[in-house]
Amino acid sequence: MMNTNHFNPRTTNLNIPQAKPMPKPYDIYVEFHERIYKPGDTVTGNVHLSLRKKLACDIVQVQLYGEAKVVITKTAMSNTPGSLTRNTSSSQWHRILDEYETLWQSPYVNDPKTFVSTDELVRMSRSTTINTRKLAKPTHFPGIEAGEYDYPFKFELPASGLATSFQAKHSGCSIKYSVTAMALNNGSSVLRKKELFPIVIDRPLDLVPNAFMPVDIHGKANISGHEIIAKLSLHKRGYTPGEPLSGTVEIINNSKKSVKYCCATIVQKITAYTNLPHVEISKTVNEIASTAMPMHKITANTQYKYELDYHIPALTPDFEIDSCLSVSYELKLTVGLERKHPYQVVITLSAPLTIGTSTSGLEGVDPSAPPDFDSNYLFTDAPPSYDYAVGSGSRFDSAPDYDLDEKKAL
């Protein structure tokens, strides 16, 4: 009779606990006392070491480093059929900060070190060597014993010569500041940790020319012999993050079609320069945030005017590093006839914007924080149901009959 109670390792559940990875023998952390720094501030913090065994090192240092870097990469195409393409890059970088501070040093770091010559190493490695002896080792083994350690650091930032921290996607340029903690043994790094921190340069708007000048621009498009006119008005050009964007948009639709797309977008323009191995110029445009018109569409032979209900997001202030990097902003208004194809627009308007950090309490500046989400809702009643929205009728088929003053009261 066959025994069916045999052991099958594939089907038998042994409840063997999963192996856990061994913890790292060394951990290092960099902690800052502040989140944002300005020129002239003191960068302070702690370097925390968590050692589960002795760390062989003779010195622990921190480095304050800052640089502006630009890298432009282009794909070179060949006119020869079948040949491969290749990428070429050029760069430029400026060192802004580079300072060191020693946190810990071994008392034996200045002791004379014993070195073994190459001839002795070769002789001791031969199999025919008689009476082999161990190579000479130092009397003391420098390092930090296992345990938890905190080392404070302190750096004084210069009052001038700095730039605002900056980094943008797909631009290849950045301005970064960091504090790097490192443990060295005979000049070689055995443990290191790098942490970035931001620096913001104060840019008061009252020192920027034309920051409080109004902007009025307009454009028109001819659709089958009829015009669509768009007007964009801003009460001023300069704003700070969190401040409401004050302005109006007016659409005069004299055509036979409905205007279904009208969007105001904050655009960030980046211009970068390189000089190694050759000079290159790169221009990048990033759309930061947008706000659409507060109605479904503007029907034929009607017009509609509304206020921009939007707050400036947290943006890097305008700046320029001569022959290296510059950042500026503009407000772009796009008007189209189809919502499904928002990039097929008929009118595009651009108004310059200036982003600063403070307003010094000037008259006409609203420093209030953005309101809650519910207070931004335009309609007082509930939104339509799904069945009603996808049905034949819609309450948004025509423009509301209230004027601008009535809209403010909602």
UniProtKB/TrEMBL annotation:
Q: One GO CC annotation, please?
A: cytoplasm
Q: Superkingdom, according to UniProt?
A: Eukaryota
- Domain Arrestin C-terminal-like: residue ranges: 224-360
A biological process (GO) of this protein is:
protein transport
* Residues making up the signal peptide according to the UniProt record: none
Specify one Pfam family.
Arrestin_C
Q: Which family does it belong to?
A: Belongs to the arrestin family.
Q: State the name under which the record lists this protein.
A: Arrestin_C domain-containing protein
